[in-house]
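In the previous chapter we treated chains in isolation. Here, by contrast, the input contains two separate entities that must be folded as one system, with a combined length of 564 residues.
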Amino acid sequence: MTTAVQRLADTAAGKMADRIPVFCNLLDQGARELGLPLNEYYSRGEYVAEGQLRLQKKYGYDNVWCLFYVGKEAELFGCRKIIFAEDGPPNVGEMILETYDDVYRLQVPEDVTSHPAFEETRKCLDILKREVGGKRPICAYVTASMTLPAILMGMENWLALLLSGPLDVRDELLEKCSEFFRKQVAALRNAGADIILYSNPFGSVDFLPMRMFEMLSLPWMERDLKPVGADGVVYYCGGARLIPVIDRVIERTGIGAYYLSPLESVAAGKRAIEGRALCAGVINDIRMIDWSPQEVREEVKRILAEGMPGGRFMFGTVVMPWSIPDANIRAMLEAAFEFGRLQ
Amino acid sequence: MLDRVLNAYTEAIYDTDRDRAFQVVHDALAEGVSPEDIVFEIVSPSLEMMVKAISESDTANLAQHFLASQIGADITEEMMARFRQAPRMAGSVVIGTSQGDFHGLGKRIVAGCLKAAVIEVIDLGTNVPPERFVDEAVSRDAQVIAVSSMMVHTARSESGCLGVRRILRERRLEDRIKVVVGGAPYRFDPELYRIVQADAWAANGIAAGEIIARLIEEVQS
């Protein structure tokens, strides 16, 4: 029987698999499986791993996640305040960069793996590796250097620095964020992560004009990725659109997988990729809260019909909101397995 | 001459060049353009052109929205201090993010656009309870409450827009105060504003300025 790892590898290489890979990004829902409040759930790597394993077993999709919440990266830089909700992802409650002088004081952890904030991540990866390693793709999430400052100083302050702030401060911060990115990727891979979701909303022309993408985003993506390599890296812009930059990203970074925005045409994404990489067609999971199971099924069918011709295609979600009904998650996955069958 | 200034200013905004935008305005002042014309013939039409460009081609990006609103607000403030007569505000808006939401960027863009349209902005910051939105709107005689949410659970929460609507209904204020929403979840689900019982929604900060101005007129008429 084909394993999920084999299925993904075959699909990425343009070979025929039994069906397309199906990724479902259920994160906070792990707490519900374990009957824990979110703050307690995310306090221990064992809980997150158990939540992921239970969710995967319950629904049968291909991947598992070692992802707590995005603010975890700020914690590695010293952030001590995360604000948890009861029914959704936590907020970063403290911006560790309040002034430009703070940028120069910012310390990139010498060794990410020995940092206390990495300990629970390592535990989570240990368990996932032991339980499903080599069989299911273990995914980790790392924020690109161009985007990470947004959670260290806030989106507004990062935009202001990027657009009209002092260049030396901007470059100092980007250099530190890029160094941190590379260290994190190495640590996560060593601990067992197969897939690195390279999250870079500031690498989308929804965020920056093409001129700035060329001048800043692309060179910093090269700085992030060249030393660590693009193996297993997936380009993702946090739900923002990425088709206009695909050609340049392939050319300059060699990233082999592109996770489209749910607002983009899958057919247009495939055309932009031209068979050079794996394309993920992504469902608009915010609408799944209110759609009927039949509407979900029709939407999955539509995405797959657009994406499957020509191969090198997989199906995915963004970060599934807490309030999506169970029946809709099941309808989505049943449709993806049924219409995504290849042999 | 105003056309030339308008084009140069708009071009600087599209190029995300803050210094050039200010230079264009200050050069125009030096050439004799009045502060009133800078606001009403340059800054406001430039924002309107941006709304038109966004609705026609959807090519403008967050950086351009951010810069257009911040520069527009800063220039309007600078020019208003030089107006021959104190300007009459077109209306008032209470703005903030929904309870549990700490993402202030969208709100800041909208606030900048409103200031550039000579609309008074009462910014309540982030993580605002529904009662506070309504209390402030009543005490400041605002025509519109604007609730920004970056996360789907804060957009749909009973402590967000739904809570504001409930209080407005209970206090019989719905004719006097309109509610507008915006933020990422609404872009992914354009029908969501109906579910949270808002009067309107805006796909981006620049468009929000125009929609809020329309709601203010509606209440005032």
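Residues 4-339 of chain A form a domain with the TIM Barrel fold (CATH 3.20.20.210). The first helix of chain A runs from residue 4 to 12. Compare these points with the single-chain example from earlier in the chapter.
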